[in-house]
TrEMBL record, chain A:
One Gene Ontology biological process: amino acid transport
Xref: Gene3D superfamilies: 3.40.50.2300
Keyword Cell membrane (UniProt): no
Record-stated family: Belongs to the leucine-binding protein family.
Alphabetical UniProt keywords: Amino-acid transport, Signal, Transport
Organism domain of life: Bacteria
Species this chain originates from: Microvirga makkahensis
Leucine-binding protein domain: residues covered: 26-369
Species classification: Bacteria, Pseudomonadati, Pseudomonadota, Alphaproteobacteria, Hyphomicrobiales
Protein name per its UniProtKB record: ABC transporter substrate-binding protein
UniProtKB/TrEMBL annotation, chain B:
Topology within the bilayer: Multi-pass membrane protein
GO CC terms, sorted: plasma membrane
A Pfam cross-reference name: BPD_transp_2
An annotated GO BP: amino acid transport
Name this protein carries in UniProt: Branched-chain amino acid ABC transporter permease
UniProtKB/TrEMBL annotation, chain C:
Residue ranges annotated for the ABC transporter domain, each copy included: 5-246
Family: Belongs to the ABC transporter superfamily.
Gene Ontology MF, one: ATP hydrolysis activity
SMART domains in UniProt: AAA
Protein name from the UniProt record: ATP-binding cassette domain-containing protein
Keywords per UniProt: ATP-binding, Nucleotide-binding, Transport
Pfam family, one: ABC_tran
Keyword presence, Transmembrane helix: no
Listed InterPro entries: AAA+_ATPase, ABC_AA/LPS_Transport, ABC_transporter-like_ATP-bd, ABC_transporter-like_CS, BCA_ABC_TP_C, P-loop_NTPase
GO cellular component assignments: plasma membrane
UniProtKB/TrEMBL annotation, chain D:
Keywords, in A-Z order: Amino-acid transport, ATP-binding, Nucleotide-binding, Transport
Gene Ontology biological process: L-amino acid transport
MF-aspect GO terms: ATP binding; ATP hydrolysis activity; branched-chain amino acid transmembrane transporter activity
Name this protein carries in UniProt: ATP-binding cassette domain-containing protein
Length: 393, 287, 254, 238, 333
């Protein structure tokens, strides 16, 4: 009876594990992202970044083949996130976890990491505190505070004394509001009103009316990238705020490249701060864009999550190199503390302490390039920006 | 005062977009007793067709709208014949299951063929300009949408209240068995009504694209809003739907202006209040 | 002795159309009363008014001397005023046994219990089988109602009513739609009703009415046009007119 | 459409598990009048609605002018010549009088509704009132006029006089007689009032518990009060 | 009692004892499936635990939809109430897992009382809309009260003590799964008793014809409200299980989407049998898991196709298919 069970168990586990890991030396990397549903485009960018990196740097490290396993997590859902991560670790035997678009999903995974002996490289989730929840987390994206921070000063220097902040009412929105207020008031300005809009807002005219009534001369806005940004920018123009000369600042989520064809001339001249522009002028970026566009299929769809994934893969490759294929999460993470390299976005470094990426933040302006296509044109660089959200903790 | 006027005109525009899209759903739910959760999917399909027509075929705005409406109706015909006819008269939850399944399929297929990015339908020059109306500037497009909504309301009113078809339709809704006994081909009436409902969804999807941008997830994203609006108005009633859209549009808009932090509270509290006060919707037909 | 059940000047109109006018009647214990009248005379409306499904525009309903006009349908049932339905209202996927058990449990105030088994109580089961047996339903006791014959469904309607131990029973066309072969079973069931029960029956089958009733009330156009013994009813000119000739008292109300 | 003959053969029908009509057969020649008698609940209404196709038919055929209409839906039967004025009148409560009439005209031009106004001037007075605002008599006029406007070859009238004031009854019966004598329609009348029924039709059919128990000339029935008592009356005491 | 019956109809007469046997067999089958899941998919226990938690939610919907005929698209409000109550209690120092589950159940029941109190004022479509409005308000409230709930970032950092002081909630999720499975079985058995009680029968009656129930002398509203409370307790248990096993609570647990998905699972499985709820959940989530792993990008089409196929093939849900097969077997001697 017991023997029978064992045989059954062995047969089943052999079936489940597949034939690969038994003899070939393949290192598996599990990537969790929104590959379907409302955020499918961002997930697609994850995939494009990963594939671009592997196309440019080979599919093996030190003779170890890399295999990527994608798992779909269409919307923020921590329970499912945890289930997927656990399945990737336990069943698929991945040595590295990557991806993760939403903060709560990352929060659900981090408690597993030390037991799983698996590092998690976050390609996007942008709340500062994630890296504090486990020493095995490394982040190659950005935090909202990091990208927002320079805008306070820029706004004040451009003559805005009174500003209104308008953000989507959820974690990153609140982070952005706080970061801007802090920087703006430190520079000497005054935030006259702070508006938090429900996530599902589709008509922004009443908000714009409120902006107008507030008497502010500058508007700071944060909306997650996606369909509503279009309505927001259009409402800004159509209600005459643009004409009235009110200055509009936002982190780059608002003008992600994949939305620009739709935003079009409505967004022209809009100034945003961000860590990456697809139009960044560097040889590294040219190579990256070419490879990533090939992977994603259309130049219009390429956007910032791809570079997070691309650099995330760089970190994972370095980790594999350091551990030589052995599963040792601590060693892997230690190997990338302080790692610096030239990313498509510019020079970057993994802070040894926080394991968050330090990078340039650019002020960009939506403009037409030589082909008449709208791009985020970099006009000013703020080098070596750490995450101010973490600095304060 | 200016602010009130200003809010009112925004509320009107937003309400009209909801109205154009939802009135079709209201007709299918109230007149044909089909809870068609895939209604938004048809609006989305129309948006894609219009975007393709305008951007890739270079057609004008009006031609794109026309093509989108026709195209969506053409797509809906086989669906009506092979899927919807199976669920006429089924329990509501079975209808929900089927139409959600259909919505998933439409989303998946759209994502596959059209990609996940936003699609825009370029507006003609005349509509894309901000217009100064004295106390504020307003996008000409918003006035166009209001006009469309009014035209739809008026056109439908005329169709349903004044034409023989409308009289037959109302008779069928009032008492289908008796209409049949008087020689009204109720199946044909239903098929035409379904096509009209889909056509209106298509029109709403296209002219409302400035408010509800076209992307694959559109079909699910606004499903709840549509369902709520229709129920509040009372399924099957044109004036009911109009009142619901304007009232909810107004509550939503002013709520977002006055207390943006609690915008959703306002909206859903209003919904609960209205539903408790008018359990059949503002002007609903008795079940 | 005061009447067990009494209706005083009951009236009801829908949007200007009077469907019941000034109906008064009373029933002592053990009464067997038949209410007849042509279609549209307002018989079912009368039952609905008496049992609380409809609110009267005017008038009173008294049970055991107490005014129940303001009570809802449920409370009237609990006071012993019970009806059957003209078109059977049964739960198609439950069995007759389940119907009657539920009713008995309800009567005993045990129907909302969660921590007891539906079939756990033997004395309830005995009573249920007693009732089903009286009505000749024991053969189909455990078949789903949707699968039993219509005549048996009508009998089940009566069984449910009896399980409530009513004081006053209103039977709304107990034999309607029942194939003629099955009518004797219904008649038998009616004969066996508890003697103290006051029964008001609406029925079109005159044979049944004449065999059952000791008193007949005829309703036409919402008002009582005759009240008396069965032997007199056929002879009454107004009744004959209502049924056979041009009933001239009928009128419409705009 | 001129009047057509009606032949009903072995018709059985009912609701759900209940058989209400069993094996009913009869014929009415084109342009003739037939009264159907029987006490309440004996299947008269079911017979008419089964002819119209509004009920489940378990078996049998319905021939109008020799053509079998039984496989058709009621809308097609209506278009091929059957018209019903139901006992419950079934006017469209949310439609105006005029709109109710428009539904009935089938594909004829709208101005033919004048025919209905000629028949019942009262309807003209109330043409803009909604259905539910009408009195019982007006509803009956409307229901009747609505069906007649469709020019049925076979007209089925289900207790048209029920609950109506005598004046209106007279008016209606006059209208029916006029219609019948014009020979444009074959008319079946279900009526509880014996006198009216016998006056109206030359032949009579009595239904009891879903079956035809008597069929014959009106005069024969009139001559036999016992028969009347037995089948229709309040009843002799057994 | 002696039943005179023809041979052919005996099998159509369920007996009290055969009911019990059938339920015992059903519960044994569920336990066996649960155990088989544990042995066959030792690496997917987190998914299986999630299925168990959602199955509790779907069961709770079955109570109100399948047994009472009250349509709801807002049941996640009760699930989320349980999840957040357990989560907040845990963050504030209550770490014993069974206590947390109990807290979740109580919170769910309280939310059920509130929701029932509002929803039962309306009928049909209006009722459905009320349920949507309520779940949206719960969602909004959870988002706003970020000090307690963590808002959109989720309530993280739940440190749950080992179960009975012995079994850790670890990476492999064995403890969580087995605890969830036992909970599910207990709840299922309890619900079998509930639906087999006079109260359960009364609910089934109300679903079919409230007028008849009133004519039997029973009030309708308090009965339905009571079922809402029970349903809330079940949903709250599911929510608390999700919170304990994942150690994080997200806004998705009070979302319309979760409610709608759960309702879809129930309709897929079939209403009003309790088994349908389990079958629907397992089939839907299992299918979704397999196709989304197979093709993370376009699996939605396949799920949609599954739903359409089920409506076309088995409009009464998958359990009705079992009934049909059984009936056709019986038809053939």
């Amino acid at each position: 009876m017991i023997a029978g069970k064992r045989i059954l168990g062995a047969a089943v586990s052999a079936m489940l594990m597949g034939s690969v890991s038994a003899y070939a030396d393949t290192i598996k990397v599990g990537i969790i992202g929104p590959f379907s549903g409302p955020f499918a485009l961002q997930g697609k960018n994850f995939q494009a970044g990963v594939e671009a990196y592997m196309a440019l740097n080979g599919k093996s490290v030190k003779g170890h083949d890399i295999e990527i396993i994608y798992r779909d997590l269409p919307a923020a859902n921590p329970a499912q996130s945890r289930a997927l991560a656990q399945e990737l670790v336990v069943k698929e035997k991945v040595q590295y976890l990557g991806g993760v678009y939403f903060t709560p999903d990352a929060m659900a995974i981090t408690p597993l990491l030390s037991q799983a002996n698996t590092p998690l490289v976050i390609f996007n989730a942008a709340t500062s505190a994630i890296v504090n929840t486990s020493p095995l987390v490394v982040r190659t994206s950005f935090t909202t505070a990091q990208t927002t921070n320079p805008l306070g000063k820029i706004a004040f220097n451009e003559g805005v004394k009174k500003a209104i902040t308008v953000v989507s009412d959820y974690g990153p929105g609140v982070d952005a509001e706080n970061a801007f207020r802090k920087a703006f008031e430190a520079a000497g300005g005054q935030v006259v009103e702070a508006v938090r809009m429900p996530m599902n807002t589709t008509d922004f005219s009443p908000i714009m009316q409120r902006v107008r009534d507030s008497g502010a001369t500058g508007l700071f806005a944060f909306l997650p990238s996606g369909p509503p940004t279009l309505g927001f920018v259009k409402a800004f123009n159509e209600t005459g705020l643009k004409k009235a000369g009110i200055k509009f600042y936002a982190p780059g989520d608002l003008t992600q490249e994949s939305d620009l064809p739709a935003l079009g001339e409505a967004a022209e001249g809009l100034k945003t701060s961000f860590h990456y522009s697809v139009a960044h002028d560097s040889p590294e970026n040219k190579k990256f864009v070419e490879a990533a566009v090939k992977a994603i299929g259309s130049a219009d769809q390429l956007s910032f999550p791809a570079v997070g994934a691309y650099d995330g893969m760089h970190v994972i490759y370095k980790m594999i190199e350091a551990t030589d294929g052995k599963q040792d999460a601590k060693k892997a993470v230690d190997a990338v503390r302080g790692l610096s390299w030239t990313s498509p976005r510019g020079p970057v470094r993994i802070e040894p302490e926080t394991r968050h990426i330090t990078q340039n933040i650019y002020l960009r302006e939506v403009a037409k390039d030589a082909d008449g296509k709208y791009i985020n044109k970099e006009i000013q660089t703020f080098p070596d920006q750490k995450d101010p959200g973490l600095a304060t903790q | 005062m200016q602010t009130i006027l200003s809010i009112a005109i925004d509320a009107l525009a937003f309400g009209m977009v909801l109205f154009i899209i939802c009135i079709g759903l209201s007709l299918t739910m109230g007149l044909m007793r089909v809870v068609n959760l895939a209604h938004g999917a048809f609006a989305m399909i129309a948006g894609y067709i219009a975007s393709y027509a305008a951007r890739d075929l270079g057609l004008g705005y009006a031609a794109s709208i026309f093509l989108a409406i026709i195209g969506t109706i053409v797509i809906s015909i086989p669906l009506e014949r092979f899927l919807y006819r199976r669920i006429y008269g089924s329990p509501e939850l079975t209808q929900v299951l089927m139409t959600i399944g259909l919505t998933f399929c439409v989303i998946g297929i759209t994502n596959y063929f059209m990609g996940p990015t936003l699609k825009i339908i370029p507006l003609p020059e005349a509509l894309s300009q901000p217009l100064d109306v004295g106390f504020r500037t307003i996008a000409a497009h918003r006035l166009f949408v209001i006009a469309c909504g009014a035209a739809v309301a008026g056109g439908l009113w005329y169709l349903i209240e004044r034409t023989t078809f409308g009289i037959k339709l109302r008779a069928t809704v009032d008492n289908a068995a008796m209409s049949d006994a008087l020689g009204v081909r109720t199946q044909v009436v239903y098929a035409i009504s379904f096509a009209i409902a889909i056509g209106l969804a298509a029109l709403g999807g296209v002219v409302g694209a400035e408010f509800l941008p076209i992307e694959p997830y559109y079909a699910l994203r606004y499903m709840v809003t549509f369902l709520v609006v229709v129920s509040v108005g009372g399924a099957g009633s044109i004036p009911g739907a109009l009142i619901a859209c304007l009232v909810l549009g107004f509550v939503d808009t002013t709520g977002r202006y006055l207390m943006p932090d609690f915008g959703n509270f306002f909206f859903y509290a209003a919904v609960i209040l209205i539903v408790c006060l008018f359990p059949r919707g503002f002007l609903g037909r008795a079940q | 002795m005061s009447d067990l059940f009494r209706v005083e000047n009951l009236s009801k109109s829908f949007g200007g159309l009077a469907v019941s006018r000034n109906i008064s009647l009373s029933m002592p214990e053990g009464e067997r009363l038949a209410l007849i009248g042509p279609n549209g005379a307002g018989k079912t409306t009368f039952v609905n008014l008496v049992t609380g499904q409809l609110r009267p525009s005017a008038g009173r309903v008294l049970l055991n001397g107490g005014d129940v006009t303001q009570l809802g349908a449920v409370r009237r049932v609990r006071k012993g005023l019970v009806r059957t339905f003209q078109v059977t209202r049964l739960f198609s996927d439950l069995t007759p046994e389940e119907h009657v058990t539920l009713t008995v449990l309800q009567r005993e105030g045990k129907a909302t219990r969660i921590l007891s088994r539906f079939r756990g109580n033997t004395h309830v089961a005995d009573e249920v089988h007693g009732i089903l047996g009286t009505l000749g339903l024991h053969e189909v006791a455990r078949r789903k109602v949707g699968q039993i014959a219509y005549g048996q469904q009508r009998l089940l309607e009566i069984a449910i009513a009896l399980a409530l131990k009513p004081k006053v029973l209103l039977l709304d066309e107990p034999a309607a739609g029942v194939p003629s072969a099955d009518t004797p079973r219904i008649e038998q069931a009616l004969e066996r009703l508890p003697p103290s029960l006051a029964v008001l029956m609406i029925e079109h089958d005159m044979d049944l009415v004449f065999r059952f009733a000791r008193r007949v009330v005829v309703l036409a156009a919402g008002e009582v046009i005759f009240e008396g013994g069965p032997s007199e009813v056929a002879a009454d000119p107004k009744v004959r007119e209502a049924y056979l000739g041009n009933y001239a008292h009928a009128r419409s109300v705009a | 459409m001129p009047a057509a003959s009606l032949d009903v053969r072995n018709l059985s029908a009912g609701y759900g598990p209940t058989l209400v009509l069993e094996d009913v057969s009869f014929s009415v020649p084109a342009g003739a009048r037939l009264s159907i008698l029987g006490r309440n609940g004996m299947g008269k209404t079911t017979l008419l609605s089964t002819l119209m196709g509004m009920n489940r038919r378990y078996g049998g055929e319905i021939l109008v002018g020799g053509k079998d209409l039984s496989p058709l839906k009621s809308s097609e039967r209506a278009r091929r010549g059957i018209g019903l004025v139901p006992q419950t009148r079934d006017i469209f409560r949310s439609l105006t009088v005029e709109e109710n009439l428009i539904v009935g005209i089938k594909d004829r031009p709208r101005n033919v509704i004048q025919e209905a106004y000629d028949m019942f001037p009262r309807l003209h007075e109330r043409r803009n009132n909604l259905g539910w605002q009408l009195s019982g008599g007006e509803q009956q006029m409307l229901s009747t006029a609505r069906t007649i406007l469709g020019r049925p070859a076979v007209l089925l009238l289900d207790e048209p006089l029920e609950g109506l004031a005598p004046v209106i009854c007279e008016e209606l019966m006059e209208a029916f007689t006029l219609l019948a004598s014009s020979g444009e329609m074959t008319i079946l009348l279900v009526e509880q009032r014996l006198e009216s029924a016998l006056d109206f039709a030359e032949t009579v059919l009595i239904l009891e518990r879903g079956r035809i128990v008597w069929q014959g000339a009106s005069e024969a029935l009139r001559a036999d009060p016992g028969l009347v008592e037995h089948y229709i009356g309040v009843g002799s005491l057994h | 009692m002696h039943i005179m019956a023809q041979a052919g109809t005996v099998s159509a007469m369920p007996d009290a004892k055969s009911h019990l046997w059938r339920d015992a067999a059903g519960i044994a089958l569920i336990s066996a499936c649960g155990a088989a899941g544990y042995w066959l998919f030792p690496d997917n226990l987190a998914l299986l635990t999630r299925i168990v938690a959602v199955a509790l939610l779907v069961l709770s919907i079955d109570l109100v939809v399948g047994y009472c005929g009250v349509a709801t698209l807002g049941q996640a409000a009760l699930f989320g109430a349980g999840a957040y109550a357990a989560g907040i209690a845990c963050v504030n120092g209550v770490t014993e897992p069974m206590t947390l589950i109990a807290i979740g159940a109580i919170a769910g029941a309280a939310a059920g009382l509130l929701m029932g109190g509002v929803m039962l004022r309306a009928h049909g479509l209006a009722q459905l809309v009320l349920s949507i409005a309520i779940v949206q308000l719960f969602h909004e409230a959870a988002n706003k009260a970020s000090a307690y709930t963590g808002g959109s970032d989720g309530l993280a950092g739940l440190m749950v003590s080992p179960l009975f002081g012995l079994f850790e909630f670890d990476l492999w999720g064995r403890t969580a799964y087995l605890m969830g499975l036992v909970l599910l079985l207990l709840v299922f058995i309890a619900l079998k008793f509930v639906v087999a009680s006079p109260f359960g029968m009364l609910c089934r009656g109300i679903k079919q014809d409230p007028v008849r129930i009133r004519a039997m002398g029973a009030f309708v509203f308090p009965v339905l409200l009571k079922m809402f409370v029970i349903s809330g307790a079940v949903a709250g248990t599911g929510g608390a299980l999700a919170a304990v096993s994942t150690q994080v609570v997200g806004l998705d647990s009070v979302s319309f989407e979760l409610s709608a998905n759960a309702l879809v699972m129930l309709v897929l499985g079939g209403l009003g049998t309790l088994y349908g709820a389990l079958i629907g959940t397992v089939i839907f989530m299992g299918f979704e898991h397999v196709v989304s792993a197979f093709n993370p990008f376009h699996w939605m089409t396949m799920v949609g196709a599954l739903l359409i196929a089920v409506v076309l093939a088995a409009p009464g849900g998958l359990t009705s298919l079992v009934g049909k097969v059984a009936a056709s077997r019986q038809g053939k001697p």
